[in-house]
């Protein structure tokens, strides 16, 4: 999922009312998709998940190991810790668990959003999400 203006804007519009949970669903037939997902989680360990996420989207398809390590350096991460995380496969189980979850609910498109169980497939404008969120918050009495 791209953390574009819509997602960031929604989080700013509804502080303390909504929660964003991101799950990884790397494409099976794309080179480096799994290691890229692991790289985003390795960056999360150092507080730079969204920064890594955004650079991966912007620089795709250049997502080989050497490029990921270079991006970590650009972001000011501890490169040794980052490299150890991706080389050891420390986050491989997390990514695989996300893939299993996606497959268990027959999810095959990214990005896919769930708002209180309401599925939204694909990028949508801010107002589209806002309408659904407002409906759900009103129903919940919030």
Structurally, the number of domains stands at 2
Considering DSSP H and I runs of 4 or more, what fraction of the residues is helical?
55-70%
Mean pLDDT across residues: 92
Largest sheet: 2 strands, antiparallel
Assembly state: single chain
Q: What portion of residues belong to β-strands?
A: 5-15%
Separate helix tally:
7
Radius of gyration, in angstroms, nearest whole number: 16 Å
Low-confidence runs (pLDDT<50, min 5 residues)?
none
By helix and strand content, what is the structural category? mainly alpha
Distance between the termini: 27 Å
- As laid out across the biggest beta sheet, the strand order is 1-2
Mass-distribution shape: globular
Order of helices and strands: HHHHHHEEH
Per DSSP E runs of 2 or more residues, the count of β-strands stands at 2
Describe the structure.
It is a single chain. This protein is mainly α and 142 residues long. It folds into two domains: 1-24 and 107-142, no CATH class; 26-96. The chain is 56% helix and 6% strand. It contains seven helices and two strands. The protein has helices at residues 5-13, 33-44, 49-59, 65-74, 79-88, 92-104, 126-139, and strands at residues 112-115, 118-121. Helix 2 runs antiparallel to helix 3 and helix 4 packs antiparallel against helix 5 (79-88). The longest helix is centred in the C-terminal third of the chain and has 14 residues, at 126-139. Belongs to the thioredoxin family. DsbA subfamily. Residues 6-135 form the Thioredoxin-like fold domain. This is Protein-disulfide isomerase. Keywords: Disulfide bond, Isomerase, Oxidoreductase, Redox-active center, Signal.
């Amino acid at each position: 999922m791209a953390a574009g203006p819509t997602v960031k804007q929604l989080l700013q519009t509804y502080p303390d009312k909504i929660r964003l949970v991101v799950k990884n669903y790397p494409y099976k037939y794309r080179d480096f998709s799994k290691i890229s997902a692991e790289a985003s989680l390795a960056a999360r360990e150092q507080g730079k998940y969204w920064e890594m996420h955004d650079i991966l989207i912007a620089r795709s398809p250049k997502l080989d190991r050497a490029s990921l390590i270079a991006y970590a350096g650009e972001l000011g991460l501890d490169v040794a810790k980052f490299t150890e995380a991706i080389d050891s496969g420390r986050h491989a189980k997390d990514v695989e668990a996300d893939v299993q979850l996606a497959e268990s609910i027959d999810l095959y498109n990214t990005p896919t959003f769930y708002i209180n169980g309401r599925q939204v497939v694909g990028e949508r404008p801010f107002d589209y999400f806002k309408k659904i969120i407002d409906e759900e918050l009103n129903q919940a009495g919030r």
